[in-house]
Amino acid sequence: MSLLSCPECCHTVSDKAIACPGCGYPMTPVVLSEKKAMQTARPRRKLPNGYGCIKKLSGHRSRPYAVYPPSTEADSQKALTTKARVIGYYKDWYSAFDALSKYHHNPYDVTARNLTFAEVYERFYKEKFERGKKELSTSSKYAYDTAFKNSALLHHLRFSDIRKQEMQTVLDDCTLGYSSVCNLKKLFCQMYRFAIENDIVEKNYSQYVTINRDDDNEKGEPFSQEELDLLWQNREDKVVQMILIMIYSGFRIKAFETIEINAEQLYFRGGVKTAAGKGRTVPIHTAIIPYALAFRENYPKFRTNTFRTYYFYPTLERLGIAITKSGKKHTPHDCRHTFSWLCDKYKIDELSKHFLMGHSPGKDIEKAVYGHRTFEELQEEINKIKV
């Protein structure tokens, strides 16, 4: 019989022993050979004073090695707990040493790195709504609060441990409408930007998440022919002119915040929401050319919510057409529905309608790959619509 040294605790152990009596480390030949090979390739280093420490935690853990940064006088004054200051947990000593070395190469606030999703949101919310220079609306606060509640699956997770998969699961499992899912993604993106600015994380994983569902917020009801006639009768009103621009261009109201208007070749360029809709070119219908050219003069800083609240709804109320025939309230999106209805009414071909409205041809490979329209062809089609 000969004596061996335990690779884990250096206790003297018989070569006949199955496990070390001191720490319980298995002493089988296979394990010993693997451990010996690892030690030969990369021996453990004794950590210098003030470098931090690596501790092996008790119990059966998948990542038993805890890494702690060096303590300072400030730590004791702040009474930071050991759990709050841990850098991370690792499956072996060598991975733990790498993490500690990385920390010394680029020191960061360990406490911040251990904040949960909920704690980061609390800090983000205070900076955005309580310390921000610009006063944000109550509806904005409600949207962020609702998105946070809908991400309950992430609340208890350490923010620095969250990856794309966890956020993608939240988006995919959300049973609410399309706008709610969009608000979730918006929250993730803004929280990550805040976290990077405050050294909580180094990489933005929110940029990789996607919304894997179709927009279900396209419901609406077009203006009737009688309502259209009334709008044209009041076309000297600048707000009515803007409503007519939306009706005869097919753009969503949000697109007009950034839309390009070419006065020489007479087209709009812009769009929001979908890949097919963004950056599309739509010829200006001849009936609204003067209103389109005056758009920037009338609305130098067009804002969707401002126009909708203070101009669109009050104007429809004044004209007596705020409510549809079915009893619903007309919304700005009804202008887009009206454009679609006009395209059908005046027999605009289906492919041209797809291009004008920024719709994807879906699974129709022939249209998606081989469907083409020139600007002149689109111009001819859109002017089929009679006023």
Order of helices and strands: EEHEEHHEHHHHHHHHEEEHHHHHHH
Characterize the overall form.
elongated
Helix content: 40-55%
Number of strands: 8
Tally of individual helices: 18
Outline the secondary-structure elements:
Layout: E1 3-5, E2 12-14, H1 29-41, E3 53-56, E4 65-68, H2 73-78, H3 82-85, E5 88-90, H4 93-105, H5 110-113, H6 117-130, H7 138-149, H8 164-173, H9 178-197, H10 225-233, H11 238-249, E6 260-262, E7 267-270, E8 280-283, H12 289-293, H13 295-298, H14 304-319, H15 333-345, H16 350-357, H17 365-370, H18 375-382
Helix pairs in contact: 7-9, 11-15
Salient structural properties:
18 helices, 387 residues, mainly alpha
Would you mind describing this structure in some detail?
There is one protein chain. This protein is mainly α and 387 residues long. Helix content is 46%, strand content 7%. It contains 18 helices and 8 strands. The protein has helices spanning 29-41, 73-78, 82-85, 93-105, 110-113, 117-130, 138-149, 164-173, 178-197, 225-233, 238-249, 289-293, 295-298, 304-319, 333-345, 350-357, 365-370, 375-382, and strands at 3-5, 12-14, 53-56, 65-68, 88-90, 260-262, 267-270, 280-283. Strands 3-4-5 form a 3-stranded antiparallel sheet, with helices on one face. Strands 6-7-8 form a 3-stranded antiparallel sheet. A hairpin with an 8-residue loop joins strand 3 (53-56) and strand 4. Helix 7 (138-149) packs across helix 9 (178-197) and helix 11 (238-249) packs across helix 15. The chain is elongated and about 105 Å long. The relative contact order is 0.06.
